[in-house]
User: What shape does this take?
Amino acid sequence: MKSTMMSSPLLLDSMLERAGKLFPDVEIVSALPNCSLHRYTYRDLRRRSRQLSAALLHAGIKPGERVATLMWNQHEHLEAYFGVPATGAVLHTLNLRLHPDELTYIANHAEDRFLIVDDTLLELFDKVRSRAPFERVFVVDHGCGHLPSRCEPYEAFLAEGRGEPQCPAKTEDDAAAMCYTSGTTGNPKGVVYSHRAIALHSFAISLPDGFHISCHDTVLYAMSMFHANAWGLPFAATMNGCKQVLPGRNLQPEALLDLLQNERVTLTGAVPTVWLAVINALESHPGRWKLRPSLRIVSAGSAVPESLFRRFDKLGVRVIQPWGMTETTPIATVSVPKPHMNEWSEDDLYVLRAKQGMPSPFIDIRATGLDGEVPWDGQTDGELEVRGPWVTDSYYRMDRGDRWTADGWFRTGDVATIDAEGYVKITDRVKDMIKSGGEWISSIDLENAIVGHEAVKEAAVIAVPHPRWQERPLAVIVLKDGNSVTEAEMRAFLEKRFARWQVPDAFVFVEELPHTSTGKLLKTKLRKDFGNWVWDSAARTEPQRLKAPTRRS
Assistant: This one.
């Protein structure tokens, strides 16, 4: 028997149309570089997004072609979120925190045809433009830079979009957006999101057991719009007709707190480092800011310390921890208590909330070890694997490799336990990645670069806990006999290839590194040896030779 239900594709176009028709006067507020606020409405967003669609079509954009953005969180970026996919083209958000070499590789690999860039980022763009494939470049003018040659003003381009755009027919399985992973070994990998995946993801995070989003909310997303679609909040907020607040590039705690208070924000999100700075400011200036008692803070990107939940709870503000990856669009689990857990002790509830949570509807999870799936006992760990309608099944223009199992599960690379209630707790990383301020840093890429220095014999880079950034890279180095190098020289050497935030904060010089019997670096031993590292002690300009760690078999 066939269904008699109407077939209507899940498209981003429908989200914008709904917001423009049902919530035309709801505000979208953007913080500008000059510290003023830009205000307009969903009526304006719909009009300008459709103008952008018409202009892109007039410029000859074809379905499936990529339009890149190099932008902060602002209303023009939101226009691209909807205006580009409506044409059948693919929105490609470039991560402005990457090194120019990485950006160049990504833009070429994605074969981006057009670029929309903030004038505040023209210096970065200048390091990429001669090596990138952009046919046309449109600059958003905030009065922060001169228009480079062969670039066009964004507003002038928008004016070319006259009349209703004649967008081609699309299916919900067509590509709408793409992001690249960062910090993994080897080259970054492209993940392509369909209209359907984004729509289903938007519904899932809007649920009461997700982020509980409705038209009654005012949403400020301080997570980056250029990284994993700002966790899907721009799409979900538009779908629900929420008032939106976009903080621009200024994520200093005082600026965020002013916006949270003055715009009466009820839902916000960012990585834990942002909220650690915010809670420090709140505690240092009691009474200066008054936040809404209904405020929910979404914190992800790295594990949220239990103390952060407790500190915000004292102020009546609730912190919610989800988990996900670029490959999962990105939210796959959310940590919210079940009804019977309301009887638990306060301490037990904090332990639960510090976990990465239970899977969203339609997302399946399991953890696997050498002997197959491990039990859901909260003790036995294995590599976390996921599958679902918004989990990618391949990388763009790359071999699937071993990231997917034969039966279709995505191997996340995270080591986790799952308890009897279905809550995930991430315990380690399979590939020793370092997560600093919500951004990945590859230890192997750094090690390979360090060994490339003529004075270095061997190197290991490990993650060390940091009071502000959660983790920072520490380099442990063995020099060649008769050679010497200073920390300043090593840092300058690495900054030729890596963004400054990716470079280790400290360098320790030892006689030898620990290895397994097969000759592999024994990083578990190094993490134990340097687990109590005090970052204040790292403020030295010359290398300090330490006793060599014990060799293990």
About this structure: The CA atoms of residues 126 and 177 lie 25 Å apart. The domain at 434-546 is CATH 3.30.300.30 (GMP Synthetase; Chain A, domain 3). Residues 537-553 have pLDDT under 50 and may be disordered.
